[in-house]
Amino acid sequence: MNQPSLEQIAVQLESPNSRDRLLALASLRQFPAADAVPLIKKVLYDEILPVRSMAVFALGVKQTEECYEILVKLLETDPDYGIRADAAGALGYLEDGRAFEPLVRAFYEDTEWLVRFSAAVSLGNLKDIRAKEVLLKALESEEAVLQQAAIAALGEIEAVDTVDRLLQFAPSEDWLIRQRLAEALGNLKTEKSISALKFLAKDPHPQVSQAATLSLERLEEGSTE
Questions:
Q1: Keyword Lyase, does the record have it (predicted)?
Q2: What are the backbone dihedrals phi and psi of residue 79, each rounded to the nearest 5 degrees, phi first?
């Protein structure tokens, strides 16, 4: 099946059928930012929320100055918390270090947990060690999903000195938290991490035990390099 041309995509984005607009956005992934971004912007404020959401995501894979500025504006001002969360996630995909401050503000100031969750995940994607204090704060949240995001992100930024704080989640009743911990410890090589991973490798939940086993293997491979 032939890929549509930019002209065909532009026409498809004007379709009254939201499915056509979604397909058009998906097709833009193959085109360079200079060609794709002007078309993505046409549906950035579409009346159908899934179209808007996909447009925001599309900006996150086009690494341009304009995309960064649009995403920060959406994160800080859009009235729809889902779009703000999408913008936070897309900023993580951009991997632009300047997103650190907007993401930190979103984590502390946005009242919606979904936005704060996306901000925490993206802080991990940036791999900026400055995020450590924010992520440690997220560990104290009563929202399990925020704890999950923070655990994963602390692993991403390789904050080895946070291992003791992370290990408090090893006996968590939430298997997703234990899984995130098992994955994170694979990036945090200490004796305590290895000991905890051996414990988690025996976890009754298969996804936890599998994650722990893979992390142990990764740490062992690293020690032989």
A1: yes
A2: -70, -20
Rounded to whole angstroms, how far apart are CA atoms 170 and 35? Answer: 48
Contact call for residues 97 and 124 (beta carbons, < 8 A): no
CA 40 to chain centre: 21
Q: Which residue has the higher pLDDT, 3 or 189?
A: 189
The pLDDT tens digits of the residues spanning 7-41 come to 999 999 999 999 999 999 999 988 999 999 999 99
Residue 165 lies in a domain: no
Query: Which residue range is the domain that position 58 belongs to?
Result: 1-62
Same-domain check for residues 114 and 150: yes
Element (H, E) at 79: none
The angle formed by the CA atoms of residues 172, 82 and 63, to the nearest 5 degrees, is 100
Q: What is the DSSP letter of 162?
A: G
3-state secondary structure of 168: helix
Whether the model clears a pTM of 0.85, i.e. scores above it, the answer is yes
Within 10 A of 30 (CB to CB), how many other CB atoms are there? 11
Domain boundary among 157, 192, 210: 157
Q: Are 52 and 45 in contact (CB under 8 A)?
A: yes
Number of domains in the chain: 3
What is the rounded CA–CA span in Å between residue 167 and residue 113? 24
Judge if 88 and 123 occupy the same domain: yes
pLDDT tens per residue, range 185-202: 999 999 999 999 999 999
Residues 52 and 76 reside in one and the same domain: no
Write down which residue in 157, 188, 206 finishes a domain: 157
